[in-house]
Design a protein that fits this description.
With 117 residues, the chain is of the alpha+beta class. The protein contains 3 helices and 6 strands; from the N terminus they run αββββαββα.
Amino acid sequence: MPVSSAREHIHEAVTRWDEMASRPHRFGGTEYRVGRREVGHVHGDRLVDIPFPLRVRDELVQSREAEPHHILPRSGWVSIYLRNPADVGRAIELLRRSYEIARASQAVHQPSYKTGG
């Protein structure tokens, strides 16, 4: 059973983070992005999908913090079913982890400009 207002609670938390943008997701729900990188998306009050590097994904699945993605189980994506309020908090924590990975990747790939002297 979905958690009432889970989507709103997640949206309120996630959109407070620096440089976070939200938009409709191509398969329904709301997508969250930092620059060109998707941090995750929410399907209503019932499901959150989040991308991770495979190493992190494997760790999250093994520890049961998340399940393999409901459609792409061998990918780096995980799914979190929102069955109770604790699942909502865990989804926000994992979205934050994805956000931090995205921000770190963004910083590494930023061009650096040096002025000659």
